Batch of 2 targets.
Target 1
Amino acid sequence: MERPAWAPPGIDISVPSVSRIYDYYLGGSHNFEVDREAARKVMEFVPGLPKIQQANRAFMRRAVRYAVSEGITQFLDIGSGIPTFGNVHEVAQGAAPEARVLYVDHDPVAVAHSQAVLEGNANAGVLAADLRKPRDILAAPETGSLLDLDRPVALLLVSVLHFVQDTDEPQRAVAELRDALAPGSLLIVSHASYEGIPLPQERVGGAVDVYRDIRNPLVMRTREEIARFFDGFRMVEPGLVSMPEWRPDNPLDQEDPYAFSGFAGVGRKA
Ligand SMILES: C[S@@+](CC[C@H](N)C(=O)[O-])C[C@H]1O[C@@H](n2cnc3c(N)ncnc32)[C@H](O)[C@@H]1O
């Protein structure tokens, strides 16, 4: 079986991973045949998936630029994924060269590739940790050395909360992170939902089943459930909307219904 030099030792390349499937949707090269096979199965049900993912990345970049425009230069990006094009540190440091970015992911390929991309960047780092254990993230030496939690931070939970089951209490994890952040901090979230997707729920259910089968269940939440992650934050205009509707750079291209799937928003801690 193929095992390129970038694959960290110890990973099982016969089991698909969420981060490598996502890398494939985005046109990246850090994925294996098992990942591509799973991705193709998902796309049989939801053919417009790459459009959804591109809309998600574009939202993330606009939200980072918004944060910098609000004077925030510290970023904690949890579930950061395999770096591709237009990563948080590039956007943030492009707008504010002193910006500091800590990436966090529990996937070894995402962590290894982030390390490679960040080599020589003194203001950015990566931590292997799990969103379900926020205290580990907050107490990690990497967090203490890169981020000053007494000053506002932009916390990114972009396209990751839908991989946390209700039994793992994602609401509690977000609340613990929120409580550790200084007033004025921003929470940046995007999340998958059946609402707004231009397909019947049964069809999308087929895609969701693929993730269940690879033991990384995808939790589709309603707009109302997603809004609850912002408890303790005041929504920034225009609120929780479909991804392209969040402060678009250009007039909206309404022609692609897939891009309008899922919800995104930014909240400010009072
Ligand atoms: C769909 S990707 C999103 C990547 C990036 N945030 C973006 O939106 O472009 C989801 C990432 O979340 C990571 N992830 C899933 N569950 C996680 C958890 N409990 N803790 C940390 N990372 C997690 C996966 O490994 C994957 O890299």
Target 2
Amino acid sequence: MLKHLIVLAALLLPACFATAHEYSVGELQIAHPWSQELPPNAPTVAAYFVIHNAGQADDRLLSVTSPIAGIAQLHEHVMQGDLMKMQQVASVEVPAGGELTFAPMAYHVMLLELKDRSLLRDGQRFPLTLHFEKAGNVTVEVAVQKQAPSASEAPQHAH
Ligand SMILES: [Cu+2]
């Protein structure tokens, strides 16, 4: 019986770890890059993650690239009167000892001119390379999922 339980636990572990994934480059950790699954004809896709800077110096996310998109931009949401609008930003600071959150209705990566839609379905992953001013480049895998990672997340990003 005990042996049975151990085998069962070993089988369950990889499934748990697969839902949260993390990457690091220099002093930066990038936690759980994800994207919401959208209808197949959606013109753009957004990607989200949290960057933690464990270092003593500020860094800066300069740009992003992905083989599945012709254009990848850094966007932010801003209030204009009563309307929430989004606009491109040139770069985003990752403060020393702090966090930079990309999430629905906040900073996000916007992918345009989508090429490979087969990777944009629930359960798939696509590569995204982040270019930092000091830490350099790191390629992460963005997990495409139907549900936002936490129930506290804002509703799906609409373009
Ligand atoms: Cu956007």
